[in-house]
């Protein structure tokens, strides 16, 4: 459903010089597929997400969603950022329904849907709390609920658990898988963590930096539902070793 | 609500204690060192001078309060749209900001007589001087607030296909509220300063006028009384803005607190 065809993105830096962020990116994501993107800082992972979201245009090549080129943000894609970026003045329920209000898709049923969604995310009874009354993990849950309420066909996640502590992070990963498994929704998940990528994804896209390119795409042949016990399996270790070698090989080549 | 109010009352106790102590030291010093009244009157002498002419003092206070409020509201009405305009584009910002800085570098006392000749001896030049003294911090802090929105929140708005007006109304303006109130508090205090500056130069009523005429006849206690009334006016206006913030935007005062703690 998502097709990237030879996408290239060049930014104009502050000094006027052109900076090539992405070069020759070609990638197909199937409906309902979970794709993780890993790579060192500055390899254009976030830019790639924003291209798919329609927030920035490609310099050349094409981003196609359901057969149509993406030229502007669409209502069937939703985004989750590293920071929860909740509205400090609105309570949890109003934060979750905020995008629907902005898109004029807010009707009588939305509040009930939001409440049900919050309950499945373990936020029952927090509807009237303000963001500052919640922990970091809970804030990010609210941000994920905010994205899911739009019933997106594509969920774009930019290091969503990057600001959380390790334990909360593991808990949230499994919860995300649970929420994803009950809906028809493709996920593109940007992360720094190799093990997080393998645990979550059907395929892991490894990117190399300056300019950002796809080094390789690894199929993760682990059965679902996934669990942390699978980290001990041979398949998990094989994937991890392969990804690590791709990232560090790229680094040593760059250094040389 | 109750324990909250009690906590605030407790927190204000040291300020009350210090103020009372200051007045006590003042009163005692004047008597002990036998300072002459036209140089430094005792608080009791100030009180007596004020009580003696209280309808007169009230009239002057009302005149000043009128100028202060009109100047303050003029600042609000002009500053907020101006801030939105400045925040909307770097080009507009680059064009307007130097002009604003020029208005701030002109001494308002120098401007007041010119304005009175140009606009006549009425309320208008005093309101304009008050406005000129008060509006600048409000513009600056409002602009800072409008530009302090996290870029992800702007992206969220764009991802939801919100136009620039929606973005301003539903994201930028609410986000700027704690900053705007920071500016409003400064503007409220400065409005009192501005009004008195204007009254020194050209007025036939008001506390600034009262101070000048009292001092011309060495009626120092009454002049001091006018100063005390001005101080109270400034404090009350400041607290009124703080109260409005707490009532209208309960989330705002704590947001500002956390921002300050973080910075």
Helix and strand layout, with pairings?
The complex is a heterodimer of chains A (256) and B (263).
Chain A: E1 2-12, E2 18-29, E3 34-39, H1 45-53, E4 60-65, E5 68-69, E6 77-80, H2 92-102, H3 108-120, H4 136-148, E7 154-158, H5 166-181, E8 186-191, H6 194-200, E9 203-208, E10 213-219, H7 234-255
Parallel strand pairs in A: 3-8, 3-9, 6-7, 7-8
Antiparallel strand pairs in A: 1-2, 1-4, 4-5, 9-10
Helix pairs in contact in A: 2-3, 2-4, 6-7
Chain B: H1 2-32, H2 43-52, H3 54-88, H4 90-105, H5 108-119, H6 123-147, H7 151-159, H8 164-201, H9 207-216, H10 220-248, H11 250-262
Summary keywords:
heterodimer, A: 256 residues, alpha/beta, Rossmann fold, 2 domains, 6-stranded mixed beta sheet, 4-stranded antiparallel beta sheet, 10 strands, 25% strand, B: 263 residues, mainly alpha, MetI-like fold, 0% strand, disordered C terminus
Question: How would you characterize this protein structure?
Answer:
The complex is a heterodimer of chains A (256) and B (263). Chain A has helices at 45-53, 92-102, 108-120, 136-148, 166-181, 194-200, 234-255, and strands spanning 2-12, 18-29, 34-39, 60-65, 68-69, 77-80, 154-158, 186-191, 203-208, 213-219. Chain A has 256 residues and is an alpha/beta fold. Chain A has two domains: 1-70 and 156-166 and 173-256, P-loop containing nucleotide triphosphate hydrolases (Rossmann fold), CATH 3.40.50; 87-151, no CATH class. A six-stranded mixed β-sheet of chain A has the order 6-7-8-3-9-10, sandwiched between helices. Chain A has a four-stranded antiparallel β-sheet with strand order 2-1-4-5, covered by helices on one side. Chain B is mainly alpha-helical. Chain B has two domains: 1-35; 40-262, Orthogonal Bundle (MetI-like fold), CATH 1.10.3720.10. Chain B starts with a helix and ends with a helix. In chain B, 35% of the residues are buried. The chains are: A alpha/beta (256), B mainly alpha (263). The interface between A and B is medium-sized, with 22 and 23 residues.
